Amino acid sequence: MRDAHAINLSWLLRLRWGAIIGQVTLILGVHFGLGMPQRLGPLFATIAVAAASNAALGLWARRERPIREGLLWSVMALDVVVLTVLLDLSGGPFNPFSALYVVHIALAAVVLGAGWTWALAVLAISCFGALFVDHLWFPTQGSELSSTHHPQHHIHDVRMHLEGMWAAFAMAAGFIVYFVQRVTRALAAREAELVAARAASARHEKLTALATLAAGAAHELSTPLSTIAVVARELERHLMRTGAEASSLEDVQLIREQVARCRDILTQMATDAGASRGESMVTLAPAALVEEALEGLPGRERVRADVEARAREERELIPAHAFARAIRGVVKNALQASAPDAQVRLALAREPEAWRLTVEDSGAGMPAEVLARAGEPFFTTKAPGEGMGLGLFLTRAVLDQLGGRLVLHSTPGQGTTVVLTWPAGGLRQSATLPPEPSRVQLAP
After folding, report:
1. What backbone phi and psi angles, to 5 degrees, belong to 438?
2. Average pLDDT over residues 4-9
3. Which distant-in-sequence residues (6+ apart) come within 8 Å of 215 by Cβ?
4. Can you tell me the distance from the alpha carbon of 119 to that of 333, in angstroms, rounded to the nearest whole number?
5. Which of 64, 90, 248, 306 is the most exposed place for a label (fewest CB within 10 A)?
6. 97-101, 210-214, 217-221: which range is least confident on average?
């Protein structure tokens, strides 16, 4: 991810090329179009210096290296000096395009700190003042103010001078608006990338904490739950031998059932939180991944799958088991949200550089406040016992590892659409995943 100075430098390079082209066009237009002779040799030599510096800076900036604010100031200071030389060769302070000094000061205010901006403003003011010294206060023999060159300034033609000022103002305004807007959008995009990176880091921290919590809970609770299960079983056998009342037997059986449920919850937490964390990568067709996810799923007959032919031919390097569980969880959510006789549509398609899996249900949908929290760990709208609110969270974690993303669209009364996308090519071989937490089996 490029920093702000690198973004500013890239746009400054583009602006300088635009300025160079504009300067050449303007000089040729004045010299040949308006019939006002200009000193083409020195003018084009000055522009060549700016072009050479921009080309060299562009080659230098291609390498990955830190960009410092002082470099940006140096480039802009060179532009101020080049502008001063061009103005000195073409009318000095009488040249209406001296208004372009404002462009450099405005750009400095956008991309530089206060100290650097003031330094550039002082430089621009000094350079502009030097034009007055050379052309007004102490004109030298042979300067443009001599009688032989006096017409070049067009002092006698106020109308043309004012029109030139208008053109200079329009050019300066256009440069400022264009550059400031593009840099602002580039910086906003970078800020969005930073926000997304921070969100991904936060999700990773939550996933790590969840895995640690699940492993710790399973470890700490395995012994007391196993003890309760064994004692409940012995108590049930004793009551059966002594002919105890049916209600007592039902209470003991309820205790055993609840202990078994606690065991299953802890096992599922440890499994889900760590399933994708240490799994090795395998090469698998995306269609086979979907088939694995749907295999044995209750309500499988209600899923209408539409899989492209390419999904059966191409192979991807992915954590197959964890990814299949993630897809299975999304489809299971869709089945639970839909009516018992309603279908769930699943579509797997190949995009130019990614795979897109879409799961659509016909349920009640989610309001905006619920949709905003969907995917948070332990947030669920399901009835107790139907889920722990980890499905979407873990699915997003798997997609983050693949460089993909999960997007939800939902409208109350119109169902929910979940879109999973991941890059074609799968996870890079060099990617590493944290170790999987330990799993503890509880005694029945």
Report:
1. -70, 150
2. 76
3. 270, 273, 274, 437, 438, 439, 440
4. 61
5. 64
6. 210-214
Summarize the confidence of residues 37-56 as an average pLDDT: 87
Q: What is residue 438's predicted lDDT score, i.e. its pLDDT?
A: 31
CA distances from 306 to 185, 302, 324 (A): 39, 13, 17
Q: What is the mean pLDDT of residues 383-395?
A: 68
* 276-438 belongs to CATH 3.40.50.300: no
Q: Residue 368 and residue 78: Cα distance in Å, rounded?
A: 53
pLDDT value at 346 more than 90:
yes
Q: Quote the DSSP letter at residue 352.
A: S
The three state secondary structure string of 218-265 is HHHHHHHHHHHHHHHHHHHHHHHHHCCCHHHHHHHHHHHHHHHHHHHH
Lowest mean pLDDT among 79-83, 143-147, 340-344, 390-394: 143-147
Mean pLDDT of the chain: 76
* Side-chain-facing half-sphere of 299: CA atoms under 13 Å: 20
Beta bridge partners of 408: 418
- Residue with the two structure tokens 């992915």: 318
Question: Taking a C-beta distance cutoff of 8 angstroms, is the pair 404, 196 a contact?
Answer: no
Give the type of residue at 284: L
The rounded distance, in Å, linking the Cα atoms of 215 and 228 is 20
The structure tokens 């604010």 sit at 69
Q: How far apart are CA 346 and CA 339, in angstroms?
A: 16
Q: Kindly report, residue by residue over 265-278, the tens digit of the pLDDT.
A: 776 666 555 544 45
CATH 3.30.565.10 domain position(s) in the chain = 276-438
Span 307-316, pLDDT tens digits: 888 888 888 8
Torsion sign over Cα 160, 164, 165, 166: positive
Q: Is 423 left (phi over 0), alpha (psi -120 to 50) or beta?
A: beta
Distance between first and last Cα of the chain: 52
- What local confidence, expressed as pLDDT, does residue 345 receive? 92
What is residue 426's DSSP assignment?
Answer: B
- Length in residues, the chain: 444
Q: Which amino acid is at 102?
A: V
Contact indicator for 334, 361 with CB cutoff of 8 Å: yes
Q: Longest Cα pair distance anywhere in the chain, in angstroms?
A: 131
